[in-house]
Amino acid sequence: MLKTALKPRWIAGLVFAIAISGVFVLLSQWQFGRSTQSEAPVSTTTEDTRQLTTVLQPGGFFPGSVADQIVSATGSYDPQKQVLVPGRLNDGAKGYWIVSAFAVNDAPVLKGAAATPQTWIPVARGWVADPADAVAPPSGTIELTGRLLPSESPLPHTDPGPGRASAVSVAELINDWNVSSYPGFVAARTELSGGTDVGAPAASSAVKPLLIGPQPPAQQVNWLNLFYSVEWVVFAGFALFIWWRLVKDDYRRDLEDALDDELDEDPSGQNPVGSDDRQRQHQASQPAAGRPAEEQRTADAHPADPYPTAPHPTDPRVQS
Known about the structure:
By secondary structure, this protein is α/β, with parallel strands linked by helices. 34% of the residues lie in helices and 23% in strands.
């Protein structure tokens, strides 16, 4: 079969089949890439700084449209309201986030028995590897700029201990701080007091800034495109199978032709096998030369008995 496959036409066919399969594989990759796509494109307006009081309202739900928005606010920290959140990564190393309560100036005041005169928002100010390196928040009026993020979910059945929190969860923090709060938190970028940087990284070299970019949108799977990607792979394999099948059929035809040539020759290689039989069949099908037509018809109407019987012997005569 290898000899058949090495025929020029089948080599050209193999090149063509491989080219077709390559196109099908590229189409499969394209369909697979389209099978996972973002629910919504990343908005570029989130990098434009906006006032926190105009973006988010306290006491309500956190709308997904304002997530990752860069916001600014003016207010002050309470040094008594600061916790460390463990299990945070920075360049692959585990450490702690420093989270402090920030009282927002000109923020709407909530009403109710548990409401406080000021509205607060948690601020993640930096990352430390050792809890002893955590610094207290700056005093005075602070101009805060950072990325607005939704509240995290608290870890169930977890006791983080005093001065700790299991997550940056507004529900968990407001119970510890006893304050009214916005339904999200801010990852600080800059903390200025009178134009001077007073942020946690500026106060201590052991504190690393939180370089949090916009979060990628959720991905959804398009099952139809995923099915198409698998289908193109099947087509690629089928193109190669067709080539192999055609080569195999050509190989079988060559074997049959070779076998017919062998059967048409006798062992001596001179007279075709079966030529005498074909000659006798041809003669039997033709009327005998020179035989009268009437005699021929009579012979045809009364064919010779293929099993002739011997004549009965004459009965002997009895002599008296």
